[in-house]
Amino acid sequence: MQQKISILGCGWLGSALATELIRSGYEVAGSTTSLEKMSDLSEAGIKPFLMNISSIDSTIQNFLSAEILIVAITSKNIEHFVDLIECLEASEVQKVLFISSTSVYPNTNEVVRESTNTLLTPLVEIEQLFTSNPSFHSTILRFGGLFGYDRKPGNFVRSKKRIPNPEGYINFIHRDDCIAIIGEIIKQNAWDEIFNACSDSHPKRRDFYRKEARKIGLDSIEFDEDSKNEFKIVNSEKLKAHLGYSFKYSDLME
């Protein structure tokens, strides 16, 4: 019997992830808040659910009829997640992978690891709702800035008048690496963990955005030379060691 996985949030990352999981032999259900997107999910082989955790209804138990739930939505509403977890407690789900962000770490102008103290933010509280619940196993995956395919960092430059913190360092990860890492967590049963996930290289914002601007035809960009140049360098060595993982897009300046 195929292992069942449900993905809450089939957006830019979730849809591509679902397609790859199906290719790997899993049966995948996926949620969207857009009625128009339901047919797209169905055509991709994803069992579609129209769902928003701000107004959970009875269909959620069918959606949660899976061994694994991957949470890939951007909501940071704590009460909505409390409601979701209540449903999880009564469901078949045994394992939860919560997609979080390295934004939970303060800008220390140093290297940050999973053991580094986090900020007091709603996202951190939501992480703790999952990790403290004994009804299921949870792994928290903290991604850096996502890029790849139609999500080009150069377009961020186009929308900004001046780029802040030019002497700071970036923490990015390609979507292909995101999907491969999630696949390894599932395959290796790497539950009850917290992992950072960012490419190995951390170029200066000035160098990286100049390179990316050239890719989209921008000859010149402006930097805020008066900004404080606050940054953090996110260390992903725990993930690499635990999963034996090597990044596909390791050098962001290539």
TrEMBL record:
<dbReference type="GO" id="GO:0004029">
    <property type="term" value="F:aldehyde dehydrogenase (NAD+) activity"/>
</dbReference>
<dbReference type="InterPro" id="IPR016040">
    <property type="entry name" value="NAD(P)-bd_dom"/>
</dbReference>
<protein>
    <submittedName>
        <fullName>NAD(P)H-binding protein</fullName>
    </submittedName>
</protein>
<dbReference type="InterPro" id="IPR036291">
    <property type="entry name" value="NAD(P)-bd_dom_sf"/>
</dbReference>
<dbReference type="InterPro" id="IPR051783">
    <property type="entry name" value="NAD(P)-dependent_oxidoreduct"/>
</dbReference>
<dbReference type="Pfam" id="PF13460">
    <property type="entry name" value="NAD_binding_10"/>
</dbReference>
<dbReference type="GO" id="GO:0005737">
    <property type="term" value="C:cytoplasm"/>
</dbReference>
<feature type="domain" description="NAD(P)-binding">
    <location>
        <begin position="11"/>
        <end position="165"/>
    </location>
</feature>
